[in-house]
Design a protein that fits this description.
Layout lengths: L2 E7 L3 H14 L3 E8 L5 H6 L5 E5 L4 H12 L4 E5 L3 E2 L4 H11 L2 E9 L11 H6 L7 E3 L8 E5 H7 L12 H11 L3 E12 L12 H11 L10 H9 L1 H6 L2 H26 L1
Parallel strand pairs: 1-2, 1-4, 2-3, 6-9
Antiparallel strand pairs: 4-8, 5-9, 7-9
């Protein structure tokens, strides 16, 4: 099995149907694991009608982290994809992600994110829309553009850095935490420029936005130096669309210095530990 796709559901059956259709149309050699967090709109019955799908059925909403960890426990693929149920995929999306892993020490890789709130396209035209983009490189490092609405990792990365921290409940910042842990372990976090996905956008998680600040505080208590790695909201949108300003923005330089400091610190810790032994 090349790829295990783990998807969480909490109602929104109309989106789940579109997602499954898109997944099977544009993906090969995979298994689909759906973790349902107590849907009441017929989602479970629909999934049970498709015997090729592995279903984990929870009696209550256990949250994004716990649900994905449940999926990881039964996943059989060499690669593991965490995909939302409110997205549409792009031809050869997985192959584009896999290409990054074959050429880099990658921890997580996402296709480009097409967000209808920002991008002037719709579910019927997003493939043609993305084909008009021209990127200089097939992929690049990006903390923000590597998003867990649609992200791929390898099983050995999860074995190395660990699974989702279930203290992030029900959602938000568990993805940043896992990416940051991967960076600390020496992996890169990438976005491929050879594929995209269309994201309808927060059709489930919007109900849990009141938990964002609690999870944000917990995230920065774990990673005090992580704040500069992530840009959000209007500022992120402007930087993405204003290439000249993005090139002079000091984020990448600060990021590089921080990684160097981590390497030096880890090296010193090994030296000190060796002397004690």
């Amino acid at each position: 099995m090349k790829l295990s796709v783990i998807t969480l559901t909490l109602n929104k059956l109309e989106y789940t149907k579109k997602f499954i259709e898109s997944l099977y149309k544009y993906t090969n050699d995979f298994e689909l694991i759906i973790v349902d967090n107590a849907s009441t709109d017929g989602t479970v019955e629909y999934i049970k009608s498709k015997p090729e799908i592995k279903l984990i059925q929870n009696r209550e909403n256990l949250g994004f982290s716990k649900g994905n960890n449940q999926g990881i426990e039964i996943a059989q693929g060499e690669y593991i994809g965490f995909l939302n149920n409110d997205i549409l995929l792009y031809p050869n999306w997985f192959e584009a992600c896999e290409n990054v892993f074959e050429n880099e020490k990658a921890g997580f890789v996402s296709p480009r994110h097409i967000n209808p709130h920002y991008d002037k396209t719709n579910p019927k035209k997003y493939i043609k829309y993305f084909k008009e983009f021209n990127y200089d490189k097939p992929y690049e490092k990006s903390f923000d553009e590597c998003v867990f609405s649609c992200v791929v990792t390898r099983r050995d990365v999860i074995n190395d850095v660990g699974v989702f921290d279930e203290k992030f409940y029900p959602a938000f910042f568990e993805d940043n935490d896992l990416k940051y842990r991967a960076i600390e372990a020496g992996y890169g976090v990438y976005v491929t420029n050879e594929a995209a996905f269309y994201h309808f956008g927060s059709v489930t998680s919007i109900k849990h936005s009141q938990n964002m600040e609690k999870n944000r505080a917990y995230y920065y208590s774990k990673h005090p130096l992580a704040e500069y790695l992530s840009i959000s909201g209007a500022e992120k949108f402007q930087l993405q669309r204003m290439a000249k300003q993005f090139k002079v923005f000091p984020l990448n330089k600060i990021y590089a210095v921080h990684l160097l400091c981590i390497k030096i610190f880890n090296r010193l810790r090994k030296i000190i530990g060796a002397k004690k032994d």
